[in-house]
Amino acid sequence: MTAAPPPKTLYSRAAALVRRIGVPTAVLFAALLFDVVYTTQAALDENGPRFVDFGLLPGLLAMTACAVWAQKRAAVAAVAGGGVLIFSTLFIHAFHIPPYSSVLPKVTITEVVAGVLMVYYAARRARAGVAFCVIGFLVVSGLVAVFGRYAGVGDIDSGTGSQALLFGLLLLAAPLVPAIAARDRRPQAGPRTRRLRRVNELAMGQWPLMGLLGFALLFEFGYTYSSNARGFPILFCSIVAAAIAVLSPRRPADALLGIAGMLLLSAVVTPFLHLRYDYPMPGGVPFVQVIAAMGVVVNVTRARGLNASWPRVSILSGVVALAAILNSNEPRGLQTDPQTLSILAFAAALLLGISIATGLMLRSRDSERTTVVKSAVADAQTAERMALARELHDVVAHHVTGIVVQAQAARMMAEQKPEVAVEAMARIENAGVEALAAMRRLVRSMRGDAPAGSSEISEQATTDLGADLRKLVDTANHGVPTSMHLDLPPDLPHEVGRSALRLVQESLTNVGKHASGATEAFVVAEVLGPELHLRVTDDGRETARRPAGGSGGYGLVGMRERVALLKGRLSAGRGPDGGWRVEAWLPLAAGEGDE
Fold it and tell me: Which of 274, 281, 287, 263 lies closest to 333, judged by CA?
């Protein structure tokens, strides 16, 4: 029974959208959405002239368009993006529009993300010389934006300029390293391709966490600017914690200990930096480290379950409690107020509970998905085995039965008519060759070279069932003369024709094995309305001896399975004249419908 498809949740829809447009484009649109909301809020507040902040929107939309265009025309789009950045800087300077800072001072998040994407696509897809010139132009455009937007607002100080250059170098190196590694990538590239594929799979599985960490890091960059670089050690700990969280699915248990170590280092260093209110840390832990810790708890709970994870989770909880006590804004340094500590403990317990519940929910979903996949694989394997079993019984057993029948006839007639025995030996040879060919076709299908159940005769059944039935009767070795009545159209569905051929083949095989004293067999194949009608009869009597080659008992089972797959009807039993009678009605529409 086929399992019902899982319901389309908001997460599954979001994941499908991200897969369709790509993670980089999704991050770009998220940055644009943030900037639009932030700019709208700034344009409508009471600080400064109203609506003037909307002047940032044309530049944001143009940079977004250039970044999307860079996926197809990297070099041209990057040059256009650099021009947009310079023109936007002149526009901001001319109309005194107040831009806000993100990773780079006076440069918005959308401009940063779009610039990084254009550098990546240019370094990966453009020729080396072109890429160097284009990326150089983007760097110059970024410097113009950083230093040019301060003119008329206040000269940029040396500390902020140095930090801007440092962060700019980091932003430049971040896309260049993977882009250069991915240049001229081929499917047969070997270990490097496999590593890149694993990185891509990891990114696709961790994109919600990566998005949250990315936005949190952007804000933390801003806090580092406002603290005059005193917050750089905390920023470094946050970047390492974010990297550990993203890579945590590879080794979740070790990642939990690693994130606890980074939180401990940050908690111990913070009191000596005298950050106070310049570096917001709710509960003594920066925002990025809070999100990273929650992500690691989710991944370790998802991978190992709660029973195997609680010792390491307890260690992380202890580190968070220590950070809350050490990193306080109280004048005396340590946080000792019971009411404040209880509020912090409640908030930490709430976030921890959300993380554990999310991990257990994902673990349950993974278990259900694994069960569904195993069930689908088992069903496919069962269907494949049944197809091979039917083909083995219908084709190979048919030829082997003919060999046994001809051998018995040759043994009985050898003394009286030697020439009959010689003819029988020739038929035995032909039947053996056909049986060997059928076995080879089955081996090919089992090795994946051909679909299970396919053969030369079965493939031809889609075009001319009548010709295939005549060939089957002419080459039959069941030892009973057979006549036919055929009334078939030339356009029978593939599955109907193939199943009809196998039903007649198995019925004639049974005639040779079970119809004692039969002198004639008769085959009818005709279309009656919306159905194909098959009838195979003989004038034999029930045998009192063991049939030639024995009976496996699977002939009728296989025929019933074939008819059931096409939603037809099968009747098999003694006819009114004493012979055996097999009748089947196969709907012609079954070959086109769902099985």
Answer: 274
